[in-house]
């Protein structure tokens, strides 16, 4: 554990620089705000961030009494203040439940979110208004276990189950903070996970008796296998984004770690073309530049691209497949296949002979037509029977080209 923490816990110099830059950023922004104050949020405010992190969440809290009926205007007000505070910086406006902004400043990526300053979740006009309350809860309830939270985050990151975005559907940082605080340590969390059942309810603030949360939280937010009642908002399931696949994978990796603890569980292993070739199968390895935009949207488009490629390549006998992407890097799609060639012809099933109108249409569209068990069949020439030609054509499809910026490389073995 100590060796892992040495790698993932920010060092003194890194912490010093983080505080210096964020403090300078907020000072400049606060000087241009009126009836609002910029505050540090996210893992930076909770001191649960990992070494190498370059993202900073800033919440600009507007006075509740003055602005609660002007919630829809907060983004415009913030944009005006940002332009004054950072006249030479590129300010990107991102669409969300309430628009927010991104600015790169001193090599850190700042995300600035307008919110209403509230004291309790019930006052929130927008879900983002509650965010500072999350930081307060974590700092109060996980005061002495920040490193335990870091271990939980790195464990999930290494095993590709970290992040609540739609293309990941894993454990968010906040969920891991809640769980680690609730169970007291990283190892206790892993042990507890082995007893989780489907629709396991965890209610840290004890808002409800037993599993009564299932009757009070909106049904649309109860689709996840793990129900975590947000300790500052009893109407919210903090783990609503978690998929069954990532839930089971967490339990599996936790069991493996508990049986034989090893640093390897905290190391994210890259999937390389050379590594896949060792399986002595046919490998398709694609790297692509993602589109620009909001991480969740870009990731969702990459996921759709992967699903499309996977469904088409099943014809070649799919043995293994997957994809990788992190913000600021290229995406990787890989497929391990049984064969690299399809039959030169395939048989297409048509309508029953007795449906004369449809049968005539089928005969007109196909050349080699014959009858089998009173149904028309056609022998069709496969356009791209060779794997390379098939993939080359696949990557030219409009469906793919609309969802990625460009193909960087294609490797086959």
Describe this structure in words.
Helix 8 crosses helix 9 (186-193). It is globular, with a radius of gyration of 26 Å. The strands form four sheets. Strands 1-2-5-4-3 form a five-stranded mixed beta sheet, sandwiched between helices. The chain has 15 helices and 14 strands. The protein has 413 residues and is α+β, with helices and mostly antiparallel strands. Helix content is 37%, strand content 21%. It has four domains: 2-131, Beta Polymerase, domain 2; 142-266, CCA tRNA nucleotidyltransferase, domain 2 (Poly(a)-polymerase, middle domain, Orthogonal Bundle), CATH 1.10.1410.30; 273-341 and 386-412, 2-Layer Sandwich (Alpha-Beta Plaits), CATH 3.30.70.590; 345-381, Alpha-Beta Plaits (2-Layer Sandwich), CATH 3.30.70. Strand 4 (100-105) and strand 5 form a beta hairpin.
